[in-house]
Amino acid sequence: MRNKKKGTIVPRSRRQVLAGLLAVAGTALAAGPVLAADAAKKKGFNTQQLFQGLGTILRASQGLDYKSEKTIGESLALEGFKRYGMPVEDEHVQKFVNLLGVSLARDSMRPDIPYRFVVVKNDIKNAFSCPGGIIFLSSGLFTCLKTEAQLACVLSHEIAHVAHKDAIKSIQQAQFLQGVGTITSAAMKGEQGQQFKALIGELQTTLFDTGLSHKMEYAADLSGMDTAYRTGYGPNGLIEALQILRSEEKGAVFKGSWYSTHPPLAKRISNCSVHLREFSDYKQMRQSTGRLQWYQKRV
Amino acid sequence: MKSPVVKIACTSLLLLALLAGAAWAAKYVWVASQGATLKKEPTASSEVSSKLALNQRLSVLERSGRWYRVRTDNGRSGWVYRGRITGARPKKTTSSGTKLFGDMSSDVRADRATTDRAIRGLNPQTAQYARSTGTPEQYRKALDNVLDRSITQKEVEAFLKRGKVGEYAQ
User: Fold this and answer.
1) Regarding predicted confidence, which is higher, A57 or A237?
2) Which CATH code fits B25-91?
3) What ranges do the domains of chain B cover?
4) Tell me: the pLDDT tens digits for B40-58?
5) Residues 134-153 of B with CB under 8 A from A
6) How many CB atoms lie within 10 A of CB A277?
7) Residue in A with minimal Cα distance to B144
8) pTM score of the predicted model
9) Which chain B residues are Cβ-neighbours of A110 within 8 angstroms?
């Protein structure tokens, strides 16, 4: 188990912790630390080689280049506007959410791609992320939060989905992706073009209606808390945001909202509460800056 | 039953292994944040002594609160905030050639900036999808505006400073 004592460094993910522990164990048991690190590097290379040629499904989830990931994400974003509405017409609000989002993204597990955040005018409480880094937040969710830390945690949760490539993994069996490493203009025509539309349709169903797997959601919760903490926000913000959603669950619109696309709130709150114990100094992190309410009033 | 000598040897070996691992784990950290810098003093307002690259390895020299004094492989030393580093070697990503700060559509912007201002940000494949699905222009423009809203590192620093967040907390 991790133990985040005050002043310690937060690994970026559980996987990294595991990898770190394995590396340490390997180091300890091998001839020396440097040799073990080299061995781990070599092992990673060999694993990659092993996977090569195993088929197109693996490539679909892991080998899709960023440009193609972005094409899928942008196409999905177009559908997102159709489904959830147009962006809130206030440059201050959009800028604020982008500043906060990018501040978090640079400390996330995937800090090397551009992210964009958009608040769309819709009372339904929802947020979702498109592959490649476009993240949607409904005005209903934006305005119901009380602190900047809560908003930071919600955005970090969505950033984690992008970093984990959850949406892409959820459609790895899609016919369009079989044998595709790069989406070219040629791949968008004819039969393949139809397959691409089907893929975007499948993603819409997943992200707008049924939701990603519970396992992905729980992992994004924990990664999101880690990221918010690394940037300097209280990771307890996610628990508080979930509690706000739970308090407003009765009578809320479920279809197309966080209530229908995410796992039961009680379970998520429970998981996050356990994870919070690992941040011994979380109360000293920034909870509120006093600026959120100013932006909320503009929506 | 194993003899006491074997037990002691096994325990010693295990302890040695754990100590070696712990020592190694504590020795290095890696830059995990885009735009991280080395500072001369352990404060946000301190002068930047050099820029750090993502995934760069650093040796830990000492710690002061949430700041670590580190040394790069080429001998430069300075202080880095804990949120900018990680204790585990980062995984390589597949998004080479991209960066957090800057244009999201650099691959298409140059040749479209003057000829197609209305939807300059959409990449050709997305534009193709939009056409084939009959997506109304208002949605295409909305997406274009979203893609066009880039944030600079300087703006991020100012944002965190105003909110007294992270290394700017007092």
Assistant:
1) A237
2) 2.30.30.40
3) 25-91, 106-148
4) 999 999 999 999 999 999 9
5) 135, 138-140, 142-143, 145-147, 149-151
6) 12
7) A74
8) 0.79
9) 93, 95
